[in-house]
Amino acid sequence: MTPRFESTLIPASPDVSFELALWSNGLHCVAGIDEAGRGAWAGPVAAAAVILPQSADILIKLQGVRDSKQLSASQRERLEPVIQETAIACAVGFASNSEIDSLGILPATRLAMTRAIEQLVLQPEHLVIDAMFLPEITIPQTALIKGDRRSLSIAAASILAKTARDRWMESLATTDARYAFDRNKGYGTRAHQSALQEHGPCPEHRFSYSPVRTSKK
Prior knowledge:
- There is one protein chain.
- By secondary structure, the chain is of the alpha/beta class.
- Helix content is 43%, strand content 14%.
- A five-stranded mixed β-sheet has the order 3-2-1-4-5.
- Helix 3 (73-86) crosses helix 7 (152-175) and helix 4 crosses helix 5.
- The N and C termini lie far apart (40 Å).
- 43% of the residues are buried.
């Protein structure tokens, strides 16, 4: 049986407790990793990697940074450039809907994370990841349950992954407005489900997902 996670371990806002422990052991480049879009029915899954500076005022500089799901779209858009300017390195990687269909969502998510890490201009010495391990990556890593609510690096990554993926989905809506991807971002809203029944799936849908696979062809 999976042990219950103690909610008392979640701080009022993400902090740098995990990063500080690693920094104090001489690990200066700690990358927080998180994803966006695993549950969507269409489009890619995105992942971001963020390396924060060892700054005494980092909590002030990134005040308001939270798990992206706890923020509005306007809040995420406001915080995105702040994170990019504050981080000493950050990057976003994607795995396409076809890669999700061929590999499965979990391996595709790991692929997106790996691509984000590979795009960093600095080599991470340790990874802190939201509830996942990357077994093919040799960099030491820590998987944190509820990491996007506990680690500031992971929370920052969650925002960058979400804003980058949202823009991707909004761009799809400019070429195919039938599914309102600019509004639902590919998630299974009632309107999205109705559009699938009316039009069938488009090439950007995840055909391995049951709601898409069973929709009108």
